[in-house]
């Protein structure tokens, strides 16, 4: 399986073992990594049977002022920004992500926040015979999970875990 990490994380895929398929024909990504996983599959000429998007970073319904504010907070103090970001990622669970910490860059954050999910890209992947699975947490403090659900539900098998947050863990 090819896996893409979330923003400011590395090695967190172990936290998602119950959702992942250990196969050379599977590509998966968490949050920011879900964006990268989609683009990888789209650009790849290799066979991919399953694309797993774990809490895909979905910000296209946010105002430009929200994105500017996030970038401004990151520039003002990236350590404090990432600390608060990771608290929001783990909510409502009590997961320690310190062993997975890999502080991201301003460019990565800008890419994450500015990424636009396009229905056509997902349709192209489905037309190749790739199964798309999306996992969302109902108590997500990072993204608007209901907006993401509305977007992804018609495009792939979508699982909405009502009491989970961005990390897809229950309290």
From TrEMBL:
Full protein name: Pimelyl-ACP methyl ester esterase BioV
Annotated NCBIfam families: esterase_BioV
InterPro entries (UniProt xref): AB_hydrolase_fold (IPR029058)
SUPFAM superfamilies: alpha/beta-Hydrolases
Species for this entry: Sulfurovum indicum
Superkingdom of source: Bacteria
Gene3D superfamilies cross-referenced by the UniProt entry: alpha/beta hydrolase (3.40.50.1820)
């Amino acid at each position: 399986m090819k896996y893409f990490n979330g923003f400011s994380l590395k090695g967190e895929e172990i936290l998602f073992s119950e959702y992942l398929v250990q196969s050379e024909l599977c590509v998966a990504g968490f949050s920011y990594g879900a964006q990268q996983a989609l683009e990888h599959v789209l650009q790849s000429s290799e066979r991919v049977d399953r694309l797993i998007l774990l809490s895909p970073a979905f910000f296209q319904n946010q105002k430009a002022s929200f994105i500017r504010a996030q970038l401004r907070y990151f520039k003002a103090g990236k350590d404090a920004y990432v600390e608060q970001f990771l608290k929001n990622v783990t909510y409502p669970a009590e997961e320690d992500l310190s062993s997975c910490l890999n502080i991201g860059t301003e460019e990565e954050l800008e890419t994450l926040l500015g990424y636009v999910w396009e229905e056509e890209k997902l349709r192209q992947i489905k037309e190749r015979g790739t199964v798309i699975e999306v996992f969302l947490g109902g108590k997500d403090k990072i993204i608007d999970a209901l907006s993401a659900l509305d977007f992804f539900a018609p495009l792939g098998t979508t699982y909405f875990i009502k009491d989970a947050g961005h990390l897809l863990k229950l309290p």
